[in-house]
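Contributing new records

If you add data, match the layout below exactly. Sequence lines come first and carry their own label; structure lines follow with theirs. Keep one chain per record. Anything else will be rejected by the validation script.
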Amino acid sequence: MVNSYIRTIEFEYEKVSRHWLKIHTIISVGLAVASFLLEVILYFILKRMDLMEASGPVYVLRYLLIPTGLNLLILLLIFLFRKLYPKRLTLQSYVISIGLVGICFVLFTIHSIFPSLYFLFAIPLMFSCLYGDYVLTSVTAICVFIARIVGDVVIEWDSAKSAVLDESYNSVNFAISLLILAGFYISCLTLIYFEQEKNHAAVKKEVERVQFRQGMILDHLTALYNRSALDEVLEHLSEDDIGLVCAMLDIDHFKEVNDALGHAAGDDYLKKFADLLRNTCDQHLIFRYGGDEFCILFNGITLEEATTLCRRIYRDSSRILDSKSIGGRVAAASYGLSVFEKDISPDDLIRRADREMYAMKKRLR
């Protein structure tokens, strides 16, 4: 049950990751669209104020067509990877994170005369840390530093830009920007660490709660659900459960098993019988009602199908012990079944199955 619960938590985390991947993709698209709109608006502002140094066609080519084309190429790669590898969430997170760095790189490079635009690179760093992956954030940070250096030192997209290394002021500003981005990267790693610690503590507490709960509803000898668990299930039966089949089973001559072979052998028989129930009815709810009585709630099958399963249990349970060991008597499980109907209470459901079970015992005497 605990392992199943942990798998459930992992599945929920995966659902959150998928949701964040969608949002991350939308943000990348939004940033690319915003960049295009910004350039269009800037074009009309510069033209109206007569501040445009380049001719109209050159401006459109350098600041609209080429950057937009590069951003569309990045987005195309993101969507391509998402389509080709829909189940590889880690790969998608890397592609989207690095793709967002690329979009920021394009926007920063064509306007690198504005030094404060290096803050754009904080966006992909911040979003990458939401995946809680140290390696992903570190790879994103490496791409950010490479993009920052290449965009400011190697590429001179704007002719009005002054060389970074030619003036001491620009060099100091460049170095400070790298230090700030490094500090932001360290902050992201710190956030990931404490978020993981918080998640681990929460999961540990939930697992402990489930383990405690498991101890409350499981029978310690057979590891089947106990009477308390059955009462809880019956309490929550509703109209949606109409048609559910209840089976009560009681091991015939179980007292003779204990008397002839001892209580340890009796306990061993109960364990083997529980294993038989699990193997035969693994898709249904199985309970130890008390002593040598058991209950099975069959859902999704007919009364005839449930009867077939109970007949198999009766047949196979008689083979667990050699009848000679208990004076020639056969230790098999008699059974009775009842169906949950609209006007029947949970208590009546159990009583009817119990009555049918004892009627079978009388017929077999």
